[in-house]
Amino acid sequence: MGRVLLYAFLLLMAGFFLLPVYLVILTALKEPAKITLETVWQWPHPPYWESFRTAWEAFRPKFQNSVVLATSATLLSALVGSLNGYVLAKWPFRGSGLLFALILFGMFIPYQSILIPLFQFMKSIGLYGNLFGLVLVHVIYGIPIVTLIFRNYYSEIPDELVEAARIDGAGFFGIFRHVILPLSVPAFVVVAIWQFTQIWNEFLFAVTLTRPESQPITVALAQLAGGEAVKWNLPMAGAILAALPTLLVYIFLGRYFLRGLLAGSVKG
Amino acid sequence: MAKVKLEHVWKRFGKVVAVKDFNLETEDGEFVVFVGPSGCGKTTTLRMIAGLEEVSEGKIFIGDRLVNDVPPKDRDIAMVFQNYALYPHMNVYENMAFGLRLRRYPKDEIDRRVKEAARILKIEHLLNRKPRELSGGQRQRVAMGRAIVREPKVFLMDEPLSNLDAKLRVEMRAEIAKLQRRLGVTTIYVTHDQVEAMTLGHRIVVMKDGEVQQVDTPLNLYDFPANRFVAGFIGSPSMNFVRAGVEVQGERVYLVAPGFRIRANAVLGNALKPYAGKEVWLGVRPEHLGLKGYTGIPEEENVLRGEVEVAEPLGAETEIHVNVNGTVLVAKVDGHAPVKPGDKVELLADTSRLHAFDLETERTIGHSQEKVAAVR
């Protein structure tokens, strides 16, 4: 009996959360003229696929930008994070604990508060407007969280492995390459999912720091929804397209995500 | 092969002194065991020799080379860790080959050495397995193998058997001894287990609170402990200690307490004379106490009277706990002696094997090794 209630409750909650998604799909498949408040919950027949084509055409260059941005920023920040984590977990130095605390502090600085100085800074170093600048911002902005994930993961790796490698003849980078990296796959998956999703979905930096030719998909999506007489089918179709990559990443890597967050143990 | 020499080596962690003025010179090919309770500094000392821990003060030599500032990889040592520290993502072969690969040995040389080590350690059939597919004993062998293939000047082993169950530990102990004899490589071995220390070490360094208590052969530690700590640490069950007054009557010296009045032999008696009228710790090992009527120890002025509290028959012998006026003494007596709790018994002490310790300094009174040897 308790179980039945539990499942009923969970189903209700899931339905509640999926309701907007359902509405997005419904609206995306309707002809613009047929989108009215009265017919909001009605299924379109026949489904109108044209919106996806139009949205895709509007998106294509920005989609490409987003792929480049999210992939390269994710890879770079994962690399930075694993090096940071490696040093903080396995090569502690005087003040490294404090440094770690300060790095984590970065997670709690609200985004919006640094936007204007960031904009001016990027302008002054000549990286405003292009995709590379945005990659750099995301890599740096991701340092706290990826450092945290990697450091905690590496703390679980016994110090003796590092010491054994030192005696075996490996140096700082040798140990990283031959011992630490091969054991880091779960942490990389966690960081990849997290960063890819964050960066792909991010809007504020993107709209502030890029010129039109290098804008990512989130900005394009906002533009699709702008203007006076909004044809709702288009932004809805666009939203589905924009959400697909992160959805796929989660579907394929999701189980590693949970495993990596929960366990991460590699005890020999 | 090489000697290892430590000269006035200190290790401080902030204000805490972990190792105090450590001095040692090993022979070539010697098996030296560091033993002591946890926190005594034995592992820290080993790690300083390995180069994993910096030396705060003093000098460490491997061979003739001062190695204080030499990184671990260039010290020509190999180390076996307590938890084996095998690389989880490499198979057994790769684990053993790793150090040689990093040193850019030719492939066939690596192959030869790994296979030879695998043969010696009987792990040839495991070469393709990952560490997680191995039992504790097998991992232990791989860890040994990883050390052997390097053909280092010195083996360092940090409690390598403490993660194994009791039976396997005894087996591997014998194998390590055999292997070390066979390879003849200078070995420094850390353990908290005095039985391991006694069975493996050519010489044993007994440590406590960062300080070396005594460096000697197993038998000398047993027969001539330098102080009360070593006396109690070496031997199982531990030596009994009881406070006793020293009574001097001309040439006769007695150790006296309620329940006994024992006459010290000539050597100990002489050493005890300065303590006339004072108290000392009397030390006697369980195996040097016998039950009257069931022991080869003759009855002289050497009787202790008390009441049996516990009797633990082990077959060949029975360990009895005897309350002698408030102090419980353990005695190993004949396995067929009819004793049960509550019995009033008389124990006979082997007066040639008595020890005495200063109450304050806890240092052994008298019996330097030479003096005793002269009397025997």
TrEMBL record, chain A:
Pfam families: BPD_transp_1. It is a multi-pass membrane protein. Residues 63-253 form the ABC transmembrane type-1 domain. The chain crosses the membrane at residues 6-29, 67-87, 99-119, 131-150, 170-194, 239-258. It is found in: Cell membrane; Membrane. Keywords: Membrane, Transmembrane, Transmembrane helix, Transport. CDD domains: TM_PBP2 (cd06261). PANTHER family: ABC TRANSPORTER PERMEASE PROTEIN (PTHR43879), GLUCOSE IMPORT SYSTEM PERMEASE PROTEIN GLCU (PTHR43879:SF1). This is Carbohydrate ABC transporter permease.
TrEMBL record, chain B:
SUPFAM superfamilies: MOP-like, P-loop containing nucleoside triphosphate hydrolases. Keywords: ATP-binding, Nucleotide-binding, Transport. GO terms for molecular function: ATP binding. InterPro entries: AAA+_ATPase, ABC_transporter-like_ATP-bd, ABC_transporter-like_CS, ABC_transpr_MalK-like, ABC_transpr_MalK/UgpC-like, Mo/tungstate-bd_C_term_dom, NA-bd_OB-fold, OB_MalK-like. Residues 4-234 form the ABC transporter domain. NCBIfam families: PRK11650.1 (NF008653). This is ABC transporter ATP-binding protein. The lineage of its organism: Bacteria, Thermotogati, Deinococcota, Deinococci, Thermales.
